[in-house]
Amino acid sequence: MILVTGGTGLIGSHLLFHLVKSGKSVKASYRNKDTIHKVSKVFGYYSDTPSDFIDKITWIQADISDIEALRGLFTDIEYVYHCAALISFDPKDYARLVKINIEGTANVVNLCLEHHIKKLCYISSIAAIGSSLKDKETTEENEWNDSNVSVYGLTKHDAELEVWRGSQEGLSVVVVNPGVVLGPGFWNSGSGTFFRHASKGKKSFIPGGTGFVTIHDVINAMTLLMESQIVRERFILVNENLTYQQIFQKIAISLGVEPPRKKIPFWMLECLWRTDWLRSKLRGKRRRLTKSMVKGLYHQEMYNTDKIKKAISFEFGDLNAMIDFCSEKFRN
Questions:
Q1: Is 275 a domain residue?
Q2: Residue 80 or 190, more confident
Q3: What pTM was estimated for this model as a whole?
Q4: What is the mean pLDDT of the chain?
Q5: Are 284 and 223 within 8 A, CB to CB?
Q6: Which structural domain range is residue 82 located in?
Q7: What integer is the mean pLDDT of 2-7?
Q8: Cα gap 273→293, rounded to integer Å
């Protein structure tokens, strides 16, 4: 049986559908029962009878930061996909990020070792690789550089260290580092907010850029790596390196709205993150723009994906087709 932690997130829900559709026996963790409705919604994008797939999953409520609560998940498990994580770029959430991303991952690794799990796939992020050098492509071999790295990136990097620690203790592991994942169903978070923003016909776009990847390519790469003999390796997953202007133009055109044409100047961003900091201090509001986020926009991040292509002869799909698919589901 296969265990998927964080089964109610974007990656987790799509992974569950893929595994169940392939006839695999699957167990999934969740924190709030209401979030299973989101999974059903995602399944509905690919099936007219999503409940048939939902009912084939063994659902167990568990908090990954509570190792005792996690123990029940590992009964009769052979393979683990660790998708659960907290995504936040607000420095005020650092303690929670540590608790869930680092300590939670340590708990999963320890239980994998305790239960002699055959293989663990850890879903990390390009944020865990660190800031890339200007005008140079980042590879899996880049030295860790934490300059201008978000609190999220810092904790994902340290979570990876827990996975590598597990590999040194005998656990077979593989790590994937996806770029910004484009997929349907979560319109109020992650890349889903790109579609909401573009749909409003915004005139401006932020500078910089990063790597983007389709949810289907992430799932395919993960499952192929788990089925392979490859262990103790990490792989960047990026379809295309795009500027934010390019990605918003693609989404806007797909949605049938006017694409943004005016770049927000850096001086304005520098003012905005300071204003946002003051607003957070005075009103206790969540940070929407931080200093590290702005610094990261000063150049486009570039990622090289030769390693995954050579390791399993992997071919990335059509990013534009995924944008059109997401746009259709967003409009509906």
A1: no
A2: 80
A3: 0.93
A4: 92
A5: no
A6: 2-185+209-241+302-316
A7: 96
A8: 9
Q: Residue 286 falls within a domain, yes or no? A: no
- Catalogue the long-range contacts made by 307-314 (C-beta closer than 8 Å, 24 or more residues apart): 307/139, 307/140, 307/233, 307/235, 307/236, 308/221, 308/235, 308/236, 308/237, 311/225, 311/228, 311/230, 311/233, 311/235, 312/221, 312/224, 312/225, 312/228, 312/230, 314/220, 314/221, 314/224
pLDDT value of position 290: 84
- The answer as to whether 277 is a domain residue is no
> At residue 277, does pLDDT exceed 90?
no
| Token duo for residue 276 | 């946002």
Q: Which of 156, 183, 12, 15 is nearest to 94 (CA)?
A: 156
Provide the domain count of the chain.
Answer: 1
Tokens of 124: 């990390």
Please tell me the distance from the alpha carbon of residue 154 to that of residue 271, in angstroms, as a whole number: 25
At 164, is the pLDDT very low, low, confident or very high (cuts 50, 70, 90)? very high
Reduced to 3 states (helix: H, G, I; strand: E, B; else coil), residue 145 is strand
Residue 308, domain member (yes or no): yes
CATH number for position 123? 3.40.50.720
